[in-house]
Automatic annotation (TrEMBL), chains A, B:
It comes from the Bacteria. PANTHER family: IRON (METAL) DEPENDENT REPRESSOR, DTXR FAMILY, TRANSCRIPTIONAL REGULATOR MNTR. InterPro entries: DtxR_MntR_Metal-Reg, Fe-transptr_FeoA-like, Fe_dep_repressor, Fe_dep_repressor_sf, HTH_DTXR, Iron_dep_repressor, WH-like_DNA-bd_sf, WH_DNA-bd_sf. One of its GO terms (cellular component) is cytoplasm. Keywords: Activator, Cytoplasm, DNA-binding, Manganese, Repressor, Transcription, Transcription regulation. Belongs to the DtxR/MntR family. Residues 154-231 form the Ferrous iron transporter FeoA-like domain. This is Transcriptional regulator MntR. In the presence of manganese, represses expression of mntH and mntS. Up-regulates expression of mntP. Homodimer.
Length: 234, 234
DNA sequence: CCTATATATTAGGTATACCTAAATCTCTGA
DNA sequence: TCAGAGATTTAGGTATACCTAATATATAGG
């Protein structure tokens, strides 16, 4: 009945650190600061430093770390992070498609289970789903070999006023942001038109949903930043 | 991305202790000794004592514990243990029925996941499976309300020579025993006839499978003890 | 160029869940 | 009855992953 956990690497915590470094580093794999990680993970900066030092000197180092200059993933760390992201997105897709979860509940369940499913489980749900390329939020699912397909999509906060777009993906955010986003009704596949800037605030956006031209929706920079779009129509 | 775990009770370890006490206490809910728990869980006896003392003095005690006299579950502990057993058996059924796992692999996956699925996940797989009453090993699945249906089945080691039976359930065992059991080909639904005792060893049994009268199978007390049967035919 | 401030690290401490070795109980059999 | 064997508990320690407070570093502005 046990379930002994091996002493070293690969704990739930380590997984979450690696995933956070992957996301915060962005496509250019910039060094990530302790503070950024502390905010993202909700732990004290001192705890971050501790963990990074441990991960950097492990037998198979998960990160490259230099005091005061941030971290980035080592090849092994990157591999593991992508593995967990693949688990996460496959689980979300599975919960949504097979278990009929409401979309706003898939994230929290996936956030936990991503660390505990076996390779067999991963393989079986992928097969059951027909090896999907994207999750229900429109995000690419990394391949089994650890390749993350890049999407051709721009950020809503960079869109040109007057343009017509369709939502390509909605980023992973904290629970509160997710709730506010959900309230706007914006999700993958929704068509919208960007309105001329009304607020002085940089990166905030006003839009109009296709089919509902009467109601303008104002989005804060934070909300708009998580939505990626592609041009629609001609 | 976090997934903060509340400080007190309800860890994976605690769950496994409670489940072990439930099973070892049997239907009569006998007190369970530290040694029995230490063997079952694969931890040092001293660790057992530590955990039991903690569980006994928690704000909502999970066990009734008296020094040198063993433990049993409190009502709250029993509730939690049955909840985890329900998770375990629903997950096994789900892996077997929906994800087409080979039967010998369902246990290990369920042993891990049972601690991490949400109530929603539990409810959804139960619904998808049509609210099953037994798992793929023939064991009863506790109800959502925490009732464990009792089965009318006797232990193979108590069967009368000459009787014809069908296997009702196969108990949960350690990996090694499971492997040996699997090698005999015995599973739920298999029909067999008990042969006159050949070995002097108490509780060991010889049987013959229906349809394969040529090969007698000798089972050790340990193997036979995990197999429960019901009379078959007239 | 050099200090103030923000950023990051070190130091020291907590809780969980294990471990080994050293007591201390319990209870059986002479 | 009571000694000793076996079961159990206590004592003291480890590793992980957090925390707060104190200290050190980097660098941007004056
Ligand atoms: Mn996670
Ligand atoms: Mn995997
Ligand atoms: Mn378990
Ligand atoms: Mn449940």
């Amino acid at each position: 009945m046990p379930a002994r956990r091996q002493a070293n690497a690969n704990s739930e915590s380590v997984d979450n650190y690696l995933k956070a470094i992957l996301v915060l580093g962005g496509s250019t794999e910039q060094r990530v600061t302790s503070t950024a990680l502390a905010n993202r993970l909700g732990v004290a900066p001192a705890s971050i430093t501790n963990m990074l030092q441990k991960l950097a000197v492990a037998p198979e180092p998960m990160v490259e770390y230099e005091r005061h200059r941030g971290v980035r993933l080592s090849p092994a760390g990157r591999r593991r992070a992508l593995e967990i992201v693949r688990h996460h997105r496959l689980i979300e897709t599975f919960l949504y498609e097979i278990l009929d979860y409401p979309i706003e509940e898939v994230h929290d369940e996936a956030e936990r289970l991503e660390h505990f499913i076996s390779e067999r489980f991963e393989e079986r749900i992928a097969a059951k789903l027909g090896h999907p390329k994207t999750d229900p939020h429109g995000q690419s699912i990394p391949t089994m070999e650890g390749q993350m397909p890049v999407r051709e999509a721009i950020c809503l906060s960079e869109a040109l006023a007057g343009g017509a777009y369709v939502i390509d993906s909605v980023g992973e955010r904290d629970a509160e942001t997710r709730r506010r986003l959900e309230a706007t009704g914006l999700r993958v596949g929704i068509k919208l038109q960007v309105l001329p800037r009304t607020s002085a605030e940089t990166c905030s956006v006003s839009i109009r949903r296709a089919g509902q031209p009467e109601d303008a929706i104002d989005l804060t920079a934070e909300l708009a930043g998580g939505i990626r779009i592609v041009p629609f129509g001609i």
